[in-house]
Specification:
Blueprint (H helix, E strand, L loop, with lengths): L12 E3 L2 E3 L6 E5 L6 E6 L3 H16 L8 H17 L1 H12 L3 H22 L6 E2 L6 E9 L2 E5 L5 H14 L3 E5 L6 H13 L6 E3 L4 H10 L5 E5 L2 H13 L4 E5 L5 E4 L6 H13 L11 E5 L3 H11 L21 H16 L3 E4 L3 E2 L7 E2 L2 E4 L6 H4 L6 E7 L2 H8 L7 E5 L3 H10 L4 E4 L18 E2 L12 E9 L5
Helix pairs in contact: 1-7, 2-4, 2-6, 3-4, 4-5, 9-10
Length: 492
């Protein structure tokens, strides 16, 4: 990267179909974690910019330039939007990699593909979702219909900028809402480009607006705005709690939050394929540099197979050493910035200080000078009360715990404020079902980890959030249910 020419990025907001600087003129540097260079300057959106975007979205919603289109028409435009994302896949993947550090092979093969597929899927679904007629007496006709909520505010994190945006804007737009998206200040560039592609696809000006900026300056005004009808957020549990408070303090807007996780990955001695379980455990925690809310960061291995499991796991660690994310062979890239790098390193030091045994990694490295990289790290001898077992690290750090029976491991697994995902590895069907039912998590994987698609809901229990992304269930977040009761006086 240090010798190649970078593309030119436009960091201005997209409001009412136009590229705009922040009203204050303020900007911030967008710094690549790959090697620390400044990619561009980005508009530092604030309350005035959010207000302009919300006004544009409200006007677009009220004049029904989008909501008034038949579902089949919105479908065609959203499918065109998805096609444009795929057509610009190389550009978007490079932008994502430069902006937040993930390997370009995954930015293209996972992020671009998943974002396009999500938008296409909701476009195709919206003209196939029927309203209802209630079972009333002959003297009445009761219609139960869905209507868009209005203006939807969306705040997404930096780890999967395109995918997280797509999960929210796709169902919201499909049913006729207008949207104001605030991407993370750490990775705003692909969101801004998506807004341009949406306009090119035919989504009318004002329907999809993107305002970059920092949380307190742009995110809070969006969550507090009295003319926003719904706020959808993915990010930390700490900020998610603030979002719910802001929703209540303002206009009692509905708030949907997908938050943190500390997912347990449970491997019993009767695991049907130990090699596959090892590959899933290692690959899933180190994928995306461990910057995934659903990462299986707590690995519970039954005591009788722990040594064999760890021997196999440690043999795989060299394959995940961080390297230049722009190299198509790289499987682990850079952490998003120096702040996150320092956070991960503090957790690693905490693990050491609290008595966990460091088996692999644990050091910051620089495969590319000036970048933000840390070695894949494995701790053994972890207890559930240790900081590295309780708190979300959001980095490539695996904590290994031991158990002796199903009741013991379920108790340990559920000792968390989170409940996003979990996994169970066993050939015993009764054990698989019993443990899966006992685990307090929104998704439980059996004999695999992280296999899913857009057809199934994603979200968590407890402090992992409220509501579900993906699947037809996501339409519930962005629609109001209306009953129309019609009296019938029979002429017969």
């Amino acid at each position: 990267m240090t010798t190649q020419t970078l593309p030119t990025f436009d960091g201005r907001a997209v409001i009412n179909g136009q590229r705009m600087a922040a009203r204050s003129g303020a900007v911030f540097d967008c710094i690549s974690p790959v090697d620390g260079r400044v990619l561009t300057q980005v508009a530092r959106g604030a309350e005035a910019d959010i207000d302009a975007a919300v006004q544009a979205a409200r006007t677009a919603f009220e004049d029904r330039r989008w909501a008034g289109k038949p579902p089949a028409a919105r479908k065609r435009i959203l499918i065109k939007f998805a096609e444009l994302i795929q057509a610009h896949g190389d550009e978007l993947a490079l932008t994502e990699t430069l902006d937040m550090g993930k390997p370009v092979k995954y930015a293209k093969g996972v992020d671009v593909h998943s974002a396009a597929n999500c938008i296409r899927w909701y476009g195709e679904a919206v003209d196939k979702v029927y309203d209802e007629i209630a079972p009333t007496p002959d003297t009445a006709l009761a219609l139960i219909t869905r209507e868009p909520v209005g203006v939807v505010g969306v705040i997404v994190p930096w780890n999967y900028p395109m995918i997280m945006a797509a999960w929210k804007i796709a169902p919201a737009l499909a049913v006729g809402n207008s949207v104001v998206l605030k991407p993370s200040e750490k990775s705003p560039l692909t969101a801004l480009r998506l807004a341009e592609l949406a306009l090119e696809a035919g989504i009318p000006a004002g329907v999809f607006n993107v305002v970059p900026g920092f949380g307190p300056e742009a995110g809070s005004p969006l969550a507090l705005h009295m003319d926003v009808d719904c706020i959808a957020f993915t990010g930390s549990t700490r900020v998610g709690k603030q979002i719910h408070v802001m929703a209540g303090q303002s206009n009692l807007k509905r708030a949907w939050t997908e938050l943190g996780g500390k997912s347990p990955n449970i491997v019993f001695a009767d695991c049907p394929d130990l090699d596959r379980a090892v590959e899933a455990a290692v690959g899933s925690i180190f994928f995306n540099q461990g910057e995934s809310c659903n990462a299986p960061s707590r690995l519970f291995v039954e005591a009788s197979i722990k040594d064999a499991f760890l021997e196999k796991a440690l043999a795989k660690v060299p394959a995940y050493q961080p390297a230049n994310p722009l190299d198509k062979q790289t499987v682990m890239g850079a952490l998003v910035d120096t702040i996150q790098l320092n956070t991960v390193m503090r957790y690693i030091e905490s693990g050491k200080a609290e008595g966990a045994k460091l088996l692999a990694g644990g050091e910051a490295v620089e495969p590319v000078a000036g970048g933000c990289y840390v070695q894949p790290t494995i701790f053994d001898g972890v207890r559930n009360d240790m900081t590295i077992a309780r708190e979300e690290i959001f980095g490539p750090v695996l904590s290994v715990l031991t158990f002796t029976d199903a009741g013991d491991v379920v108790r340990q697994a559920n000792q968390s404020i989170y409940g996003l995902q979990a996994a169970v590895w066993t050939r015993d069907l009764n054990k698989a079902h019993g443990v899966a039912r006992a685990l307090r998590a929104g998704t439980v994987h059996v004999n695999q980890y992280d296999e899913d698609d857009i057809t199934v809901p994603f979200g968590g229990f407890r402090q992992s959030g409220v509501g579900r992304d993906k699947s037809l269930h996501a339409f519930d977040k962005y629609t109001e249910t209306k009953t129309t009761w019609i009296r019938i006086d029979s002429p017969i």
